[in-house]
Amino acid sequence: MRLRLICQILALLMGFLPLAASVAHAASDIPTLQMDPALNAMLPDDIRASGVLTVATDAHYPPCEFFAEDGKTIIGFEPDVWTAIAQKLGLKVEASSIDFGGIIPGVQSKRTDAAFACLSDRPEREEVVTFINFWYGAAAIYAVEANSKITEDPLSLCGLKTAVQTGIDFGDMVRNIFSKHCVANGKPPIEVSEFPAASQVLLALYSNRIDFALSDAAAVDDIQKQATQPIKVIESPLLPKIYLGAIVDKSNTKLAEAMLAALKAVYAEGVYDKIVDKWNLHLLKLAEPGINLASTRPIKTPE
């Protein structure tokens, strides 16, 4: 896999990462879209009557979503997408940042209408929420530059230590793809630890308590510039591509269908491409949005 861009890797650096490099993206203008009455009519009655779409996110993952320099405004790739969707639907967005672990339960309990948080679409998640997919996540491995043990050969990871933030998919990826590959080739599995905070994963890496970290999506250049010591990014043929998207409660089919229809209009008017250009996420753009693509349009898992 030749995808070098990383997104959730930034989650591991957020305790130390100034926003200046990413905030520069915010200067790019995205056109305001006109409300489409037909799309507005697709909305559930309560949302259409209120004129508000409540959105939950975890605004600590640039370029997915993060706080601007004022510490209040949520900006990023996904906020630009949710704004465009809301404009087509004739809605105002009320977004709030919460802990990542509360995102899916908050949608399930209807405390919020929708959520955008670099969420990876998995069949088991589709059992409780509906995904509206509009981009990809692409995984990569990173380690401190001085670590010569790790190469592009997946077997170089066998028997090493890694850590992930609790609630993120990367632990399953290590166990179900990389460790299985190790065991199948007579090598020891990878030891995986979990920490509640992303910054703790980074500290474990820099203190040599772990050998590498795994993450997905978009901004390795910014990470390397801001890191407290040099890091390297390692590509691997086992790294999967995954669907990312927004979620709504599984029972709220009207909202899911309305958001997908609005998203298709955003694509048709060229605004999706402008948002991708703004955040330099060309390698992660999804040509055609859809619902629950992990099960309806599955991507073959590398072996």
UniProtKB/TrEMBL annotation:
Keywords: Signal. Residues 52-283 form the Solute-binding protein family 3/N-terminal domain. It comes from the Bacteria. It holds the Pfam family SBP_bac_3. Residues 1-26 form the signal peptide. PANTHER family: ARGININE-BINDING EXTRACELLULAR PROTEIN ARTP, MEMBRANE-BOUND LYTIC MUREIN TRANSGLYCOSYLASE F. This is Polar amino acid transport system substrate-binding protein.
